[in-house]
Amino acid sequence: MELPIPPQRQRRKATTEMEYLTERRALFVYEAARLAARAAKAPIVPELWERREDAFREQFRLVIFRQCGADRKMSPRELHEDWVEAYRAMGWQYGLERDVNAKTHPDMVPYDDLGQLERDKDEVFVALCEIARQWIYDEPAVVATPAKQAEEG
Q1: DSSP 9-40
Q2: Given 3-state DSSP classes, what are the helix, strand and coil percentages for the chain, each rounded to the nearest 5?
Q3: pLDDT in tens, 72-100
C-alpha cells in the first residue's frame, strides 16, 4: 500500500516540474533566437545560454514563464519595452556597442527607434515563445483505469 504524498511535497514536486519545463522552454527560445539572429546576419548575436550571467538567465526564465501562460504578451513593442526595463534593472544602459563588461547595448531605445532587423527579432521572439508554449510541454501522467489495471494483471 502506497502512502499519500503530503500536500507540501506535492507542491514542491509540481514547482520543480514547472521549473524544469520553463528551463527547457527558455533554452529553446534563447538558442533559437540566437540562431535566427545569426541567420539574419544581425549585428548582435548573443553568446550561448550557458555563458550568460545568472541574473540574465533568471529574468529570461521569468519572461518565458509569463509568455507561456495566460498573461502572455503578443505585442513585440510591449515585449521590447519590458526587455529594456529588465536590462535597466540589471544595470545596463544605452551604448553604441553591445559591451557585456560596460553593460551597454544599442537596442536600449524606444521600439520606434529600432531598425527593421531589430523589430523582426522581436517578432521572432514572440513566435518562438508561442512555439514553446504550444509544443514544449510535459505529458500528463497516465491514469490507471480499471481496464488498464486488468490488462497489467
Answers
A1: HHHHHHHHHHHHHHHHHHHHHHHHHHHHHHHT
A2: 60, 5, 35
A3: 999 999 999 999 999 999 999 999 999 99
